[in-house]
Amino acid sequence: MIFMPEPKTIHIYENCIFVRAYKVAGASINAAICEQMDRVKVIDYKDYHKEGLMSWIEGQLYGRFLFTFVRNPWDRFISLCFFSQLDPDFVVDNWKELNQTPEFRAHTLPLHIHRELCGKSVDFIGRFESLQRDYDKLCSYLGIIPKTLPHLHMTQRVAYERMCSPKVRDFIAQEYKKDIELYGYEY
Question: How many domains does the chain have?
Answer without folding.
Answer: 1
